[in-house]
Structures are given as C-alpha cells and as structure tokens.
C-alpha cells in the first residue's frame, strides 16, 4: 500500500511539473527559414497575393463584417472557435505586433501575448511558407488593410480544451520536421504547385485525414496519408491522390479550371471549397493554378499532360450534351420512357432534376454537375447530398466565369420519404453503387439546418 501511494505521489508530482512547464517555460520559436536583409521589401502587390493564396479573407471576415476584422465562427469538434481581428487596429487587431510575433503566429501558432492559437488557424501548413512570403503578408496587413476596431467574441470551449497551454503538448505531436520547404521534383512548375498546396493553400487541412489527436495525418508529399481524404463538419472530403481520387479522371486543364472557377465538365464546387475559390483560388495567376493542378495530377508519379497556359479561357463555348455511356443507358432508357409505374425515386428525379442534370445523369459542363460517378452522390455519408437536395447550393461568380449558379432547395416541396427516395435513386442510377437513404437520415439533415 505504501509503495502504491509513493508511486501515485510521484505521478501526481510529475503531472504538476509537466503542467507548470507547459504554462511557464518559454516556447522555443522557429527562426526564419530564409535569410533576408533587414530592409527587405516585397514587390508591390505580393503581400495581397499571398493573402489570397492563404485564404485569409474567408476565415477572418464575418458575414456582413469588415474585411479581416474577424468574428467568423469556425466549427470544430471541440466547439465554435471565433476568428481573430487581423486588421492593423492597435486595440483589437494586430497593429502592435512585430514581425517576429507575426511569424510566431504563422509558424508556431503562438500569438503576440504568448497564448497558443487553436489549430483552426492552419499553422501546421503555413509553417512551410517562405520568410519572404510571410514578410510580404505582414507588410500588407500592416500597411494596406484598413484598421477596424472590432472586439471579437472570445472563444469559450469546454474543459479541458479551454486550457490553451495544453495546445503546446499537441504541437509536439502535430508539428513534425522543420519548416523549410522541400521540393519533391526538379520540375519548376510542379515544385511551385507543391509549395502552394503544402503551404499557403493549406489543402491538407481538409483533404488529409486526422490522427487520434486531431492533427493532420499528412502535411507534406512524403507523408503516406497526405491528401488521401478527410472529414470536415462530419462530411467526407474527397481524396486528391490515389486510384479512387475523382480528379484522376480529370485532365490537368479541367482541374486548373475547377480551382479557378469552381466548375468544370465534371463537378461544381460547394461548401468550404466554394468559399476557398470565391475568396482565394480565383485570384491566383494562370501559372500558379496550372502549377497546383500539375502537382496534384503528378502526385502519384503519373505523367502530366495537357498543362494549360491559359486557365478557363473566356468567351462562348459550344459544349454538346453528353450521351449516356454503357453504364448509364438503362437508367436513361427508364427515364426517357417516363412510364406511369416507374419507381418513386425515378419519377421524382424526372419531375425535379432531369431538366438540368438530364436523363443521362451527365449534366451540362460548367453549369450542372454530372451525377454519374459524382463524389458527393456516392459518399459513404449521404448527408451532403441530402443537404443539397433540401437546401440547395450555389457556385460563386468569379472573374473567369462571372455567372453565379444557384440550385434551389426542395425542403418545402418534398417530404422526408420523397427526399430519401430521390437521393437513393441518384445513388444507384447510371451505374452508381451506394447505399439507400432512409427517411430518418433526411429528417436528421432537415433538423440540422433548422438548428443553425
């Protein structure tokens, strides 16, 4: 008994010492990964370009709020995290931050006050950015963004996630390796794409799975699970590599067009990806969009072809409707016959969906996505598909494709049983092979929307 008590006492003491160390021992900050002169200045426009590449606007601007003034709620498994004000306001923003303090936030997840940032801020990825890009971004935020006085709502997570010093221990697990960018290819275009995907673009934040500790399971090319698919807000995020990755069926030009506009001949962006395109990717140069597409297409060692010099070329385009392929012929024949005794799901599709997505399920290029082989339609979790049927979706206007596309929702037109039948039909038509949807799953999705 005495021995057990002594062991327990030692463990308690070690726990106390560890807690004190996490709270009070100074964090060892990462030094710059690039040697620059003290008076180095970024060329005009570079800072804003880095801001766009890093998608700062999407997270740090609340709906209806001032740009970069924070206050947007970001959902996490631990609760809602409220984004900070990163305008140069000296009272509520980052106006008093030094370059070293800004770098610490970008690379180590430590604020000017010494508090650890919640990893909703993707410093796991930003740490691979060059010192010149970090300094360019700092200069832009400090001198070109309008200061806005906005006291952001404090993030209040439940115990133990409210103990920010514990994030330091999380960082020891999550931030593996040094912060220097390591090109995996001698090809300059692929290396530029890798730099953008790994760093500022922080693609792994959504497209890599998470470990048991909620760290990104793969942040760089050499990591086994890098970009092999993730989960965001309970929804599956598609893989960007591997035989089953949807983009493997796209050309390099089609992938670059999707990044630039949120649409191509196969898919339409929605949710967080639509936001990334609206606030970030559409502003990248044709060269950088082609670089990202080239890197992603060649990620598993494939030969990359069809690299565009101009992405999503403007002007009228004649795109004939695609015919049904062999896998989709039976469904197309069923819908074309429009027999009065056709199954409920097929009838609902004909009444509500066929005018846009056609009886072939092929849709219209860059306007209505194809449903045959559609990633969302075939997802293990039917929630995203059901949510779109209920609530609709929209694709933002971009400079290269100004038309804003909107799909209406059918929550007020179809009941739970009908939505379940329609979704089940889409998941099994044209050769699709996915499980049926139940009215209970539809009811859950409907109530989740009402609870927002």
Automatic annotation (TrEMBL):
Pfam short name (any one) = Cytochrom_C
Instruction: State the UniProt keywords alphabetically.
Output: Cell membrane, Electron transport, Heme, Iron, Membrane, Metal-binding, Repeat, Signal, Transport
- Entry keyword annotation includes Iron: yes
From the UniProt record, which GO molecular function terms apply? electron transfer activity; heme binding; iron ion binding; oxidoreductase activity, acting on CH-OH group of donors
The cofactor(s) it depends on are: heme c
Q: What is its main location?
A: membrane
- Residues bound to heme c 2: 203, 206-207
Report the PANTHER family cross-referenced here. ALCOHOL DEHYDROGENASE CYTOCHROME C SUBUNIT (PTHR35008:SF8), BLL4482 PROTEIN-RELATED (PTHR35008)
Q: What is this protein called?
A: Cytochrome C
Q: Which species is listed as the source?
A: Comamonas serinivorans
Query: What does the record give as the organism's lineage?
Result: Bacteria, Pseudomonadati, Pseudomonadota, Betaproteobacteria, Burkholderiales
């Amino acid at each position: 008994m005495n021995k057990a008590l002594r062991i327990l006492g030692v463990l308690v003491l070690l726990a106390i010492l560890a807690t004190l160390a996490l709270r009070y021992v100074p964090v060892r900050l990462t030094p710059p990964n690039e040697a620059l002169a003290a008076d180095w200045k970024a060329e005009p426009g570079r800072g804003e370009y880095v801001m766009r590449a890093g998608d700062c606007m999407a997270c740090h601007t609340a709906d209806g709020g001032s740009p970069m003034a924070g206050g947007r709620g970001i959902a996490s498994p631990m609760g809602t995290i409220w984004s900070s004000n990163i305008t140069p306001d000296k009272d509520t923003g980052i106006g008093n931050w030094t370059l070293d303090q800004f770098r610490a936030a970008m690379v180590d997840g430590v604020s000017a006050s010494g508090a650890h940032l919640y990893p909703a801020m993707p410093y796991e990825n930003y740490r691979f950015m060059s010192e010149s890009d970090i300094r360019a971004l700092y200069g832009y935020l400090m001198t070109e963004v309008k200061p806005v006085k906005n006291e952001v709502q404090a993030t209040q997570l439940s115990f133990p996630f409210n103990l920010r010093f514990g994030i330091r221990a999380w960082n020891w697990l999550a931030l593996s390796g040094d912060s220097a960018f390591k090109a995996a290819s001698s090809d300059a275009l692929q290396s530029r794409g890798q730099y953008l995907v790994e760093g500022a673009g922080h693609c792994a934040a959504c497209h890599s799975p998470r470990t048991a500790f909620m760290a990104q399971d793969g942040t760089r090319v050499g990591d086994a699970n890098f970009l092999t698919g993730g989960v965001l807000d309970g929804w599956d995020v598609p893989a960007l590599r591997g035989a089953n990755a949807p983009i493997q069926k796209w050309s390099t030009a089609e992938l670059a067009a999707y990044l630039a506009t949120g649409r191509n001949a196969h898919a339409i962006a929605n949710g967080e990806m639509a936001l990334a395109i609206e606030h970030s990717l559409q502003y990248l140069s044709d060269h950088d969009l082609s670089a990202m597409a080239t890197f992603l297409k060649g990620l598993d060692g494939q030969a990359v072809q069809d690299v565009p010099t101009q992405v999503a070329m403007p002007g009228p385009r004649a795109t004939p409707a695609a015919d049904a392929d062999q896998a989709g012929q039976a469904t197309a024949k069923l819908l074309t016959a429009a027999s009065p005794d056709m199954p409920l799901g097929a009838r609902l599709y004909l009444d509500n969906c066929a005018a846009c997505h056609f009886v072939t399920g092929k849709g219209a290029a860059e306007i209505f996505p194809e449903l045959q082989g559609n990633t969302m339609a075939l997802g293990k979790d039917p929630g995203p598909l059901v949510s779109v049927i209920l609530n609709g979706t929209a694709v933002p206007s971009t400079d290269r494709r100004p038309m804003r596309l909107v799909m209406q929702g059918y929550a007020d037109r179809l009941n739970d049983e009908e939505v379940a039948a329609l979704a089940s039909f889409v998941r099994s038509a044209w050769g699709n092979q996915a499980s049926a949807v139940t009215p209970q799953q539809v009811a859950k999705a409907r109530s989740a929307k009402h609870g927002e």
